Amino acid sequence: MTQDNNQQELMLKLSLFEQQIRQLHEQLQAVEQGIIEMSSLNLGLDELKGAKDKEILAPIGRGIFAKAKLLSEELTVDVGNKNLVKKSISATQETIQEQIIKLKNVKKELKENLERLNQEVTKVFMYAQKKSEKK
Hints:
Blueprint: H1 3-46, E1 55-61, E2 64-69, E3 74-78, E4 84-88, H2 89-134
Antiparallel strand pairs: 1-2, 3-4
């Protein structure tokens, strides 16, 4: 194999690594954002405890709120596939906490994958450097 072929192969490998690293960073960022949103939601639910018959601002859509009266502390929760169930605030918070734990596990996995990928990049660099020193 010529030096040009070796350099092309190295550049191709590095390009693939770069793409994989970028994808992992994007996934990591999305997971971190999910953790922040779920944690914020969990805190927001604390404000509903003991707030029956009080006026609240209920979100209608992106940045749009309506004044509403809280008739009950029972929540209707989408548990997936548009299946709605009634849950107490505490039970809903437990569900959210479980989701946060799952997201944190995914975050840990993504970081481990990123570390493995960085180690692979280092190995490729070291291999390429040794090959170029031999010539």
